[in-house]
Amino acid sequence: MTQDNRIDRRFARLREEGRKALVTYLVAGDGGPENTVPLMHQLVASGADLIELGVPFSDPMAEGPVIQRGHERALEYKTSLRKCLEMVREFRREDSDTPVILMGYANPIEKMGAEPFADAALDAGVDGALTVDLPAEEAGPLSEMLSARNLRNIFLLTPTTSEERIRAITGLASGFIYYVSLKGVTGAGNLDPEAVRENLEHIRGFTDLPLCVGFGIRDGASARAVSEAGDGAVVGSVLVSAIGEAADGAAARDAVAQLVGGIRRALDA
């Protein structure tokens, strides 16, 4: 990879500014497909640096009940991987700078095919992919397809990842590393910032990539606590919950604006 892409540029800019990344997640199609792109723009306007767009899947095994319900709601609208790509293309008509990562599971990519997926992602304006259930041992072909198109393949590391696998995963990863802050699913509690700090320091011995912390980040205080040792915080369940509870698209955007704005202010304080 000789060229940088939006993800690389965004982290470089944040480093220069001495700021932490706010990575925000929503499920494509949740709250109605017509509301997804307006929500993406609202995330950016409220202070998000990167957007993870969840690709709805019938068995999102890493997700807690909140995001599982978001996937179920999106699937009721028949939101597919191709529709997710169309949403990114629409988002790009007004925003050519904000990095967008497709976060999902291997099955939809396998169904489309790795090369057609990589081509379609590039054409739509996607910057990278995070495939939760694709192990490093099987990720080489997709990584090659993405890398050839200057797209990033982002991986998860957890508190239980062995040193051998940290070495293997960081060797394949690009863009940034998503560090799972705790044992369990998205939205779980019991966040231990000191344990996060120790694990991030260990991971830094293997990679120069930015380290962003997710799972269990629900407000400004938790985002700031994990970001002190890392390069950013990933916020998902609290946003998906707000979207699910909103009466309509406007109410969802208002709720997201309040949540993201508060977390942004805490990170910048």
Model description:
There is one protein chain. The protein has 269 residues and is α/β, with parallel strands linked by helices. It starts with 5 loop residues before the first helix and ends with a helix. α3 packs across α11 (237-245) and α11 runs antiparallel to α12 (249-268). It is built from 12 helices and 8 strands. The radius of gyration is 17 Å and the shape is globular. The protein has a single domain (6-268), classed as Aldolase class I (TIM Barrel, Alpha-Beta Barrel), CATH 3.20.20.
Count of alpha and pi helical runs = 12
Question: Average pLDDT across residues?
Answer: 94
The N- to C-terminal Cα distance equals: 35 Å
Secondary-structure class: alpha/beta
Widest sheet: strand ordering: 1-2-3-4-5-6-7-8
Within CATH, the superfamily carries the name Aldolase class I
Number of domain units = 1
Topology at a glance:
Blueprint: H1 6-17, E1 21-27, H2 33-46, E2 50-54, H3 65-76, H4 81-92, E3 100-104, H5 106-112, H6 114-124, E4 128-131, H7 140-148, E5 152-157, H8 163-172, E6 177-180, H9 193-203, E7 211-214, H10 220-227, E8 232-235, H11 237-245, H12 249-268
Parallel strand pairs: 1-2, 1-8, 2-3, 3-4, 4-5, 5-6, 6-7, 7-8
Helix pairs in contact: 2-4, 2-12, 3-11, 4-6, 6-7, 10-12, 11-12
